[in-house]
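Each record in this resource describes a single protein on a pair of labelled lines. An example record follows, reproduced without changes.
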Amino acid sequence: MSNFGLFKVAAAVPPLRVANPEFNAGKIIEFAGIASAKGAKLIVFPELSVTGYTAGDLFSQRILLKKSGEALEKIIKSTKILGSLLIAGAPVEFEGKLFNCAIVISSGKVLAIIPKTYIPGYKEFYEERWFASARDLSSKEINFLGQKIPIGTDILFRANIPGAVFGVEICEDLWGALPPSSFQALGGATIIANLSASNELVGKSDYRRELVSQQSARTLGAYIYAGCGVHESTTDLVFGGHAIIAENGTILKESERFQRNGEIIYSDLDIEHLLTERARTTSFGEAVHESGNKNFRMIDLPHLGSRNLTKLDRVIDPHPFVPQNAEVLNKRSHEIFSIQAAGLAKRLESARMNKIILGLSGGLDSTLALLVAVKTCELLKLPKKNIYAYTMPGFGTSNRTKSNAKKLAEALGITLEEINISKGVNAHLAELKHQGAEDVTYQNAQARYRTMILMNKSNQIDGLVLGTGDLSEIALGWCSFNGDHISHYNVNASIPKTLVKYLVNWASEQKEFVSVKKVLKDILDTPISPELVKGKGEKITQKTEDLVGPYNLHDFFLYHFIRWGSSPKKILFLAKIAFSPLGVLDAKSRYHEKTIKKWLKVFIERFFGNQWKRSVMPDGPKVGSVSLSPRGDWRMPSDADVSIWLKDLK
């Protein structure tokens, strides 16, 4: 089975006794065994974890160095049966100096020794009293415990998953203006391990977390940080055992600090995500010219990486476009709404127009567009009467949506006109000698007739036609070409359907829209429908999700397909986890594999089959990391062959 670029790692903070290498080795072996049994292939321990970081002048004692070596021999021997690689911290005496080192161990061997580069000698740190910098090394090899071992900061390690290359730095190295990890990333490392001994101060954990997050973002990589725990000496300092795993600016896992029994955190890193991001971010590759073209020695680890993927230590969000944290969602919604309004305001100014025209159906998309239009009028100090909404009932329009459109316009104080399109569309269908079947011609004729009315009204009153179609519809081609596909400016162009729902719900809770809260809630509860076939009064017979599939799934597919370039097989694997019937999601968000696979095939076929519509889509503001604008984000041939994507799904 393919690993899909997923690589499981762990940061471990075991209990220790300062200056007792034998005890510490036992705990390192114990925690490494636990982590390895849970599938971790790379296990990172804290700085000087073999001796304890706070041994002070005891680092000058020959017996401590001797016992540290003996403890390392036990740790090395234990890795013969682990199938994982572990990195422990220990002092290493070499060339008449003592180095603070990371010992990289796997399969009963020391693979390399990485000394610390930046040795702090300020405030509460006195490391310069005992340790030399990696820059003071003369040799590139060391005779260590009977082996000839590579030593230095120019060493990287390559696992057997494509792109899974990791480097090592130690604590203060990250705090420096030019962290070694930056050069390692430019040398090919996608994963950085940091063995740390950062003490606790008020507010320092927040700074540390931000530092790790930012370095993972800056290097477009993953970062594993393991900090010393509470059993270090508390003579002057306290250590909290802060462990963090980050990926491309996102904290995947974080420890609960101050745990007296120690702690291990795990996460599956997505190497494919990182490779995709690096390949498309051209400025990352260009930075190599500033790195001095540093050459790294590469150590291959052919045994490291493969495992049977049964479950992941990684959250797979079923709604990747919608933040799950209420506070973040509120902040994000306000920001998106502001981007939409700012984009529309600029377009009105540049077009020298002060009137907005839109078709108001009583559905989600046109409702969001209307709310943005109201906000834009407020920004430009225009009266809301300058918004001209047209409700254009046709053959399938329900009383519910028509009524909601009228209530919405009235409560917001905008100009509303009803134009029934049934007579005009019937006349047009007669011209076509159409036989009356509710086919594609019948449905598209209505959509195009409505757009014709809006465009002609634009000429009549000198106003801008506001588009309402959302990102999900654009991805699926669920729009009538030269119908609802066309507008002068589309504020919803990069907002997926799942997010449209949350934005309308968010707006319903804002003071400025308190007058329409009740009708907004009813719109949210109304089934999504184009209403292009005949229904009966309140009953909506044509439901979009019955025809093209659940938007929960399609938005998930879209995110992973566009944002990360994931293969259909990988998207299916992730979707099975995210939408598992055994998960904690509400019942409406649970799907079995057969259902997911069915709609994923539909997504792929429709996405490829409708690029020609996207190639001529109107302007609209980008609000998130996924956009299908043919000008700014997505350039795809309209006649691309879909076969390899469909075959991958079989």
